[in-house]
Amino acid sequence: MQGYSGPCRIACADDTSVPATASLVDDGNGGWFGRLTSVDFDWFAAKHAGSPIVLRFPTGAIGTVAVVRFTILLPTQATVTGVGPSPR
Hints:
- This protein has 88 residues and is mainly beta.
- The protein is built from one helix and six strands.
- Helices cover 8% and strands 55% of the residues.
């Protein structure tokens, strides 16, 4: 399994995005799981809105990862599962 730890941006359906830190592991089947931390993202509002959430990474790190499910751990932190390409 490959992984990624570092900066990313959390983007919502309205194309707004905020900085975050990701610690993700590739499950080997086109899926991801791990933890996201962002002091600027409102996890509670995202849960109620039900809008798609996408993770964007620095060029050359990973492509775009779509968040399929998340569980709020703290107001600034959530565990996530998603789908997208493996790290390059």
